[in-house]
Write a structure and sequence with these properties.
Layout: H1 3-8, H2 14-67, E1 73-76, E2 79-82, E3 84-87, E4 95-102, E5 112-122, E6 125-134, E7 148-156, E8 172-174, E9 180-182
Antiparallel strand pairs: 1-2, 3-4, 3-9, 4-5, 5-6, 6-7, 8-9
Length: about 180
């Protein structure tokens, strides 16, 4: 083709256009893989931060509950007894810890509430669940109260335990259902 005829047909040939598309495809695939990896790393990072915050909130809630525990006694046939029970896990019954603490706005007229911490296990997942009920007063029995407002404080593949250490001045006894009672 003479040079004058080539001047009329400016542009890319089919081979040049296909080569440009091939290079652009490789670049786009690389950018897509990079964005995917960055997105996964970001999700992992924000997930770890979320789990850390949830763990801190759970520990704060437990610390507030234990800091506000009330020493309440009731009279039994064996003498005065503290209303604080810990029951180890047996068969299908999960480990529980029940105590009386200062309540918030929703605690009722006595401004105290009964807190129940339960360690429930299903398959590989363990849960520490907090429930509460208004405390009507020392004339009522802990066993008769129905705690509600279940909040899962901790959840995951972990092995939480409720451990109590008795000082020598305390006399731990057991109730008829095996719960540890402190006098």
């Amino acid at each position: 083709m003479p040079t004058q005829a080539r001047a009329q047909y400016r542009g890319f040939t089919l081979v040049e256009a296909l080569a440009a598309f091939a290079v652009a495809s490789v670049v786009m695939i690389g950018i897509g893989a990079l964005v995917h990896n960055v997105g996964l790393a970001f999700d992992r990072g924000t997930g770890a931060v979320g789990r850390s915050e949830r763990l801190l909130l759970a520990f704060e809630r437990l610390a507030e509950d234990f800091a506000a525990v009330r020493f309440v006694q009731r009279q039994t046939e064996a003498g005065p007894e503290a209303l604080f029970t810990a029951t180890p896990p047996t068969g299908d019954t999960p480990a529980t810890l029940v105590f009386i603490t200062a309540g918030g706005v929703l605690a009722g007229p006595s401004s105290e509430e009964v807190i129940t911490l339960t360690l429930e296990q299903t398959d590989d997942v363990s849960r520490l669940i907090r429930r509460r009920a208004p405390w009507p007063g020392p004339q009522s029995r802990l066993e008769e109260l129905t705690p509600h407002d279940a909040v899962v404080l901790l959840e995951g593949r972990l092995e939480p335990r409720i451990c109590l250490a008795a000082r020598s001045s305390l006399d731990p006894a057991r109730s008829s259902d095996g719960a540890r009672l402190w006098r």
